[in-house]
Amino acid sequence: MRAGTKILVCLYMAVAVLPLAVMALHLRDHEIFGALPPANKPALSLDRFRSEDYQKEFTAWFESRLGWKGNAIKTDNALLYHVFRDTKPGSAVAIGRRGVLFKDEDIAYYNKDGAQLPSHARLDEMARRIAALQALLRKYGRALVPVLVPSKTSLYRDEIKPEWTRAHGQPRPTDRSVYRAMIAALDAHQVSYVDARALLTAPGIPREAVWGRFARHWSTYGACLTMQQVVRAYTSLTGKAVAYECKLAHARRPPSHDDFDLWNLLNMWKPPRINRVVAVVEHDPPLDGAVKPSVMCVGTSFCWNIMRDAAASLRFSAIHMDFYHNTLVAWPENTSVPVQRGSKDLGDAFLGKDLYVLDLFETYLQPANTYIDEFLDQVGTELERTAGIVVPVVKPTAAATITGIADLGVFEQQHYFELWGTFPNPNARYTATITCDGVRRDAVVYYQNPTGGQINVHLQIDPGTCDRTQQPPRISGVSCTFHVQQGDSPNSPVFGPRLVCPGPRGASGQEPDGRCMPGLSGC
Amino acid sequence: MPFSSLLFVHLFLPVFLVVYWLTPKAAKNYAAIAGSVVFYAWGAPRFLPVVLGLGICDYVVSHQIARSRAAAPTSSRARWLLGLGITLHLSVLAYFKYSNFFVDQFDGLLAHAGISAVQWSKVLLPIGVSFITFEEISYLCDVYRGDARPARRLSQYILFLTLFPHSIAGPIFRWKDLEAQLAERSHSWLLVRDGFERFARGLAKKVLVADSVGNISDGVFALSAEQLSAGYAWLGAVAYAIQIYFDFSGYSDMAIGLGKMIGFRFKENFNQPYISASVTEFWTRWHISLSSWLRDYLYIPLGGNRRGRRRALLNLMIVFSLSGLWHGAAWTFVLWGMYHGAWVIAERLAGERRAQLPRVLQHALTLAIVVIGWVFFRASDAAQAFDMIRAMFGFGAGLPGPMREQLAPHFAQVALIIGIAIVLAPLVKRYRTATSEIRLPVAVAVASRVGWLVLFAASAIHLTNMRFTPLIYFKF
């Protein structure tokens, strides 16, 4: 009994001392994902001890270097996961159905309502400022293309467990007050933008190829499809054509790959199995003499894959990323410098870009100011100052109003529409623009009868639009908004969005699910 | 440096124990003082000189009181000295613990009168100030009453005040209980083993149960009044009842265990409080060192039961209200104290009639009263407490609630169930009619010893994980 008692005491002491001993002996520990570099040992002084700064820093140093911390963390997380199907409290990862992993803030976004959501006025103001900056840059042959980046919960909605869902029903308050409201605001201000949520959730898009089950962010393929739309918008805004294709391929990647970031964040023994084959993109080499614009992506970590893909495409001359408008990252060197907020001398890297991609991540469209406002405040103001131009204020007016459209279909790469409504000036020459899936184009008015309330237009459609052979298949039911303008007077209120098809419904038109019917020529 | 911190478990404790055990017996008190001073200085460096200064004052005053009492048992000088000592300690407590509260209340009154607020720098609350103050007062009172002798050595009294196992959350020591142990105590492997086991029990209660269940109660108490349904409100209140018991009694277990490791035997502070059949009984089982202190140094001096029934009831209300205020400088704590005081008074008035209720009903009622009372203790303000209680009785709005998984993860649900089972299991023993104790086989006894060790390791591992927050963007 006596020996047993001594052994037990020694074992208790061993449990208490072991991490300290391992720390002192620098024994090998298991690596943990997401750990910041260990803290430095603080210098002791009486003042710092009295103010308790020393104690805090010493504790941080000790905890960051504690021996076998990795083993302890992995063991505890493994117990929580395998016994309780939980991640630890405060974990950034939520486990969905069939092992799909979500970031906690995306789940929080999915469940927001009421005052947690931005007001329509705020989104409208944001869209107004984006429109003004886009118009300004366009005058100089440059482009700003906002991208509505989806939350993972918008793609994998069916994999969110009921336990993680507040009883708001469908559509979620965020769908109405963030996503749709932002779309409406951008449309109202006639902004050319890319709706990546609509793009990546469209029928026929292979979900796991555009966004991995264990990833927080979209894949390079998802980013490429988005960039493809961005480039189209760039072409439409500047008239400079850049070919940008996304060939889907698959490759085996190590577990450290970004598509497994949430999985790695679990930090556990025996984690759920992952399929290490991920979607990748192959680009054809650019044509000789092709336009190579410079590009900057402004926003969140979703910019990483956009910039990676842009770099891999070899279609851009200089690539930068403005990470939350507080760090400037140069590509492909991956060197970063802090952004001097408030500085008037942001330099050419910021102010000299041909294409700005503004990442409007829906999770981060918040009531309070974010990096978007900071970017628009600072870079927008600087661009305006250096260009010496007053940003035009775009105000809709009720002078002309579209009340309905008739989709006449596609003929020889031209899409024909009848616009019906009130067009007050019978002698005026009307112009029209149509924005489809965020890409704005000027339409050709080939017939107008303002007193009869009708204007007929057509616009060029992209080769491959609604092409059944395109991978992934492009839906024919693209979403378009319409507006008309009379001379230099303000625009009509926007009409739409409406789903349109490049051919009439019926025998040679659109399937009920929006796809083109087989054998339809040009569709 | 809480006991449930990595720094304490993996650095302070093993280093201190090795130094203490290697120190010759005659110098062990000095090793304990050194360890305690380091421990205290780590958490409240600016308050340490105050504690040491007050300790020296007490030492001098207590000897003066004893001398005056020896010269004349009814000496007014002794009473005057006692009054001086108590005033000094209450002033220190008032300044460090209640000055912010009083200034806030005063500012509120000024605001009503349209006068701007008082210029005031917030005073930081030093760790353990409430416990130390009560220990100092009880020491002076006991010396005055002749129940205890003044400390023979200043070092012993300083050790009594600063002894680190009770620095954070008690129990409230009394000099007369520890005097002999401070002068002479035995050490053994058996006692150290028992100490470790008790510490492991306390650490597991705190880290594995209280902190896990805390996820539920924190989640519920963070809900808006509109989101509270009766189910959520009761879940939050019950979870908090389990959390606070396992948290507080876990700390007491750790303190008792640490004491054993260095040869001290402290009195128990909890005795299965949730099996009480009345609120009065609850207060004989919950935070025993505080309730007995309040009885001996407040209730009885106020007159206790000796001045008639009405005065006794008034005394009870005063004691419970002050007990609430002692727990925290906020009206919610006062309300909590008054709430308990009201129930104790009601039980006194009910007298024997209450005992006629079925036993099960007495337990259930007491438990419900105590659980509802914890709502005042946990709420951020009185309005939240009343919202919660309203919801518990079915008057909540019950708008779309929180996410179930976030509010009550599976492990927290399991911890809650285990917690409820542990606190209510002793009831079975109370109802059991069998007279003989069940003797556990040796194998079970050995397994339980190994079990405590495993729990100690599991708690340390869980603690390590809880102190780590991975960042997805760490590489950016």
Give a description of the structure.
- The complex is a heterodimer of chains A (523) and B (476).
- Chain A has 15 helices and 18 strands.
- Chain A is an alpha+beta fold and 523 residues long.
- In chain A, α6 (120-139) packs parallel to α8 (173-188), α6 (120-139) runs parallel beside α15 (371-387) and α11 packs across α13 (302-313).
- Chain B is mainly alpha-helical.
- Chain B has helices at 6-22, 28-43, 48-71, 76-112, 129-145, 154-162, 175-183, 189-221, 230-261, 279-285, 288-299, 309-327, 331-350, 352-355, 359-378, 382-392, 404-407, 410-431, 442-466.
- The longest helix of chain B is centred in the first third of the chain and has 37 residues, at 76-112.
- Classes of the chains: A alpha+beta (523), B mainly alpha (476).
- At the A-B interface, α1, α3, α4 and α12 of A face α1, α2, α8, α17 and α18 of B.
User: What is the subunit organization of this protein?
Assistant: heterodimer
What is the overall silhouette of chain B? globular
Q: Can you write the helix and strand succession of chain B as a string?
A: HHHHHHHHHHHHHHHHHHH
Largest sheet of chain A: 7 strands, mixed
SS summary, helix count of chain B? 19
Percent of residues in helices of chain B comes to: over 70%
Question: What would the principal axes of the Cα set say about the shape of chain A?
Answer: elongated
Top keywords for this entry?
heterodimer, A: about 525 residues, alpha+beta, 7-stranded mixed β-sheet, 7-stranded antiparallel β-sheet, about 35% helix, elongated, disordered C terminus, B: about 475 residues, mainly alpha, about 70% helix
